Amino acid sequence: MMRASTNEEFTCKTNLKYRLLMMVTSSAAVMAEAPPDPADLTQTNTFLWGQTGNNDYTLTGGVAGKLSQDFSYLGLIEHTRTWKRDSKNVNDNTRVRLFGVQSVDFGVISSIGASVDYIEGHKSGLDTTALGLIGKVETSIDWLALYPNIAYVSLDMDSGGIKGKSEGYQANLFASVYLGDDGKYLSIAPQYMNTQYINVKKLEVTYGAPISIDGRWWFDVKGGYTRTEAIVNTGIAKLNVIDSDKTIKIGVAYYF
User: Fold this and answer.
1) Biggest alpha carbon distance in the chain?
2) Torsion sign, CA atoms 213, 218, 219, 224
3) Backbone angles phi, psi at 19, to 5 degrees
4) 34 burial class (0-12, 13-18, 19+ CB within 10 angstroms)?
5) How far apart are CA 209 and CA 205, in angstroms?
6) Per-10-residue mean pLDDT for the chain, 256 residues long?
7) What is the rounded distance in angstroms from the CA atom of residue 194 to the CA atom of residue 169?
8) In terms of Cα–Cα distance, which of 248, 251, 199, 186 is closest to 223?
């Protein structure tokens, strides 16, 4: 009797392990079949991405996963090295980000995401912390999606005898325009940051397209314009410093 009971228990455990294995395998297959969509800012993917431009290069890596059917997350680390022509001013920035997305059914809003970002300026002495919210707005137009984003921003400055903290907000609107069924897209992103001592206006336009049949390799090209206004207190007077920058970058990404 004991032998029969043991055999039945073994068979039951074996069947259970087999079913669990099939569930995990099926889930992985479904995730693998879902093509990456870089134009969807609320989609999470595991990826590697390299970009280079006229005054910087960026290396980015992200690891994504799911805690439930409706909640996914992304952990990201990014390093950027920037420089200016005819200048020895070189800076390195490292960014760490944790991003979570919840699928919802709030009318035209289908997803809501929350993020925590920290950017350390290794040589500039400017560190940034941001807590943000983003939503995916489904429009009545098949080829257009909108992603409004707002964040609390804290800037910590400690460089050249200038030390202080500047707090405020950042507001962005990302518009993703799909150019075909294969995933090609155009992204238009006006951005504005307002803090006590530093204000930034930025406009970025990005074109992206898959370059492999399986949709894992992607190419992108980005053009941007940034205008920065800063109030600097020298101890004698307050100076209004204005700087502008134009960038163009090309990148290649691989999605796992």
Assistant:
1) 95
2) positive
3) -65, -40
4) exposed
5) 14
6) 41 43 38 77 97 94 97 98 74 96 96 98 92 97 97 89 87 97 96 94 98 96 95 61 89 98
7) 6
8) 248
Q: Give the residue from 226, 246, 229, 250 showing the smallest Cα distance to 238.
A: 229
Calpha distance 193→159 (Å, rounded)? 21
User: 122 phi and psi, to 5 degrees?
Assistant: -65, -35
- Percent helix, percent strand, percent coil in the chain, to nearest 5: 10, 65, 25
Q: Amino acid identity of 153?
A: V
CA distance 62 to 96: 10
Q: 0.85 exceeded by the pTM?
A: no
Phi and psi dihedrals of 61, rounded to 5?
A: -135, 140
Query: To which H or E segment does residue 251 belong?
Result: strand 238-255
Torsion sign across C-alpha atoms 49, 52, 55, 56:
positive
Q: How far apart are CA 170 and CA 180, in angstroms?
A: 31
The β-bridge relationship of strands 198-210 and 109-121 is unpaired
- Long-range CB pairs of 161-170 (<8 Å, 24+ gap) are 162/232, 162/233, 164/197, 164/233, 166/195, 166/196, 166/197, 166/198, 167/195, 167/196, 168/193, 168/194, 168/195, 168/196, 169/193, 169/194, 169/195, 170/130, 170/132, 170/194
